[in-house]
Amino acid sequence: MCADYRVTMTAGFDSVDALVFDMFGTVVDWRTSIAAEVAVHLRDHVPDLVPLEFADAWRAEYQPSMERVRDGDREFVRLDVLHRENLETVLRGLGVDPDSIPAPVLDETNLAWHRLDPWPDAISGLTRLQERFIVAPLSNANVRLALDVAKRAGLPWDAILGAEVAGAYKPDPDAYLRTADILGLEPQQVAMVAAHNSDLAAAQSLGLNTAFVRRPTEHGPDQTIDLEPTGDWDIVAEDFEDLADQIS
Question: How many other C-beta atoms lie within 10 A of the C-beta of residue 5?
Answer without folding.
Answer: 9
